[in-house]
Amino acid sequence: IRQILDKKAGLFRQNMMGKRVNFAARSVISPDPYILSNQIGVPERFAKELTFMEPVNQHNCEELSEMIKNGPFKHPGANFLVFETGQRKNLARLGEKERKALAATLSSDNLKAETLQTSDQSWGVKVVGRHLRDGDVVLMN
Questions:
Q1: Which architecture does CATH list for 42-134?
Q2: Are 80 and 22 in contact (CB under 8 A)?
Q3: How far apart are CA 71 and CA 90, in angstroms?
Q4: Burial class of residue 9 in the structure, from the number of CB atoms within 10 Å of its CB (0-12 exposed, 13-18 middle, 19+ buried)
Q5: What is its EC number (predicted)?
Q6: Separation CA 133–CA 48 (nearest Å)
Q7: Do the beta carbons of residue 56 and residue 111 sit within 8 Å?
Q8: E-strand spans in 1-134?
Q9: Please, what sign has the CA dihedral across residues 28, 29, 32, 35?
Q10: pLDDT, tens digit, for every residue of 53-109?
Q11: Contact by Cβ (8 Å): 128, 54
Q12: Rounded distance between C-alpha atoms, residue 61 and residue 113, angstroms
């Protein structure tokens, strides 16, 4: 595994560095005395652009609904929603009323009804592309 990642022919330098790839950003690292040594600080502008794909379930549906209501311009928010069919809905193009209507479809009552109607648990799962937030695990090079 190390050989795949290291050196000039490795994954990072050959495939990711300097290239535009999804869910990636480049920045200069500088010290911050206010955070722990095993943590990094991400500017809010980066946190809004970088998304974490979080599947919707009964335990996080209310929190993700609030993020959808906030939309892509208010942190913590969400940039897009992926439906069961695979269709992506960009929240930047929607108004506040439309985002609230989408957020209402994620209520725990709706999720319970969908789970009871389908024998396959994965059919009713939606995925929210939410902003980065405190505690998220990221890969740094």
A1: 2-Layer Sandwich (3.30)
A2: no
A3: 10
A4: exposed
A5: 2.7.7.6
A6: 9
A7: yes
A8: 51-55, 78-82, 88-90, 127-131
A9: positive
A10: 999 988 888 999 999 999 999 999 999 989 888 888 899 999 999 999 888 887 755
A11: yes
A12: 14
Instruction: State how far the Cα of 72 lies from the Cα of 135, in Å rounded to an integer.
Output: 20
Structure tokens at 66: 């609030």
Place of tokens 């330098």: 13
Q: What is the C-alpha separation between 73 and 129, in angstroms, rounded?
A: 13
Q: What is the mean pLDDT of the chain?
A: 78
Domain ranges of the chain: 42-134
The pLDDT of residue 87 is 87
Helix (H) or strand (E) holding 100: helix 96-104
Q: Which two tokens stand for residue 98?
A: 């439309």
Q: What tokens does 78 get?
A: 């969400």
